[in-house]
Amino acid sequence: MKYTSKHLDNDASQSTAERILFHLKTKGPAATAALAQEFQMTPEAARLQVQKLVGGGLIEGQQEAQASAGRPKQNWALTAAGHARFPDSHAQLTIQLIGSIKALFGEQGLERLIGQRESEMRTDYAAACQGLEELGQRLEKLAEIRAAEGYMARLEQDEQGWLLIEDHCPICAAARNCQGFCRSELQLFQEVAGATGEVTRDEHLLAGGRRCVYRIRPRSGAANAATA
User: Is the domain of 145 the same as that of 75?
Assistant: First the structure.
């Protein structure tokens, strides 16, 4: 089953296996006992679900590093096949198109494509954030837009500011072949934050992270600091 925006709320209409996949996608690796507790199952029922997903090649075991001697703890994480159950915006076609653009128009042509996409997104994001004066409001709207675009985005706030967390990248195949897409999106996020916020990337899917996470800190003197 391919996931769409309708699945982002992880509702009860999904099977237990699908909800486990969604949980591992959005929350990261988890042990069988933790899954049993999360989904209010018996340990035996959780093990059966895990083995079903392992047998399907959708999850795999990962040994958790132990600080002290003892049996290492095993967590379950999505495999490449498991990640592929989520939207990928027609990855193979995207890769082929990028290759064709490079062949026909060179790197300059590809940069023009990225620039055009960035321009269109800038217009959409600016329209959505129009009238939102506070940094937090604009970031909430940005997370809402990105979630609708398939990034499984959410905004969290802490003592340093905000975290824009994207548990999925629907253009991952394109970004792996041309990281200009990632550079472009980071620039757009900074434009949404404006002069009152500073955006940096804390985690990057293409750098080995399991997701992309952006840190937004209020600039010194900003009236709408996270602790206000």
Answer: no
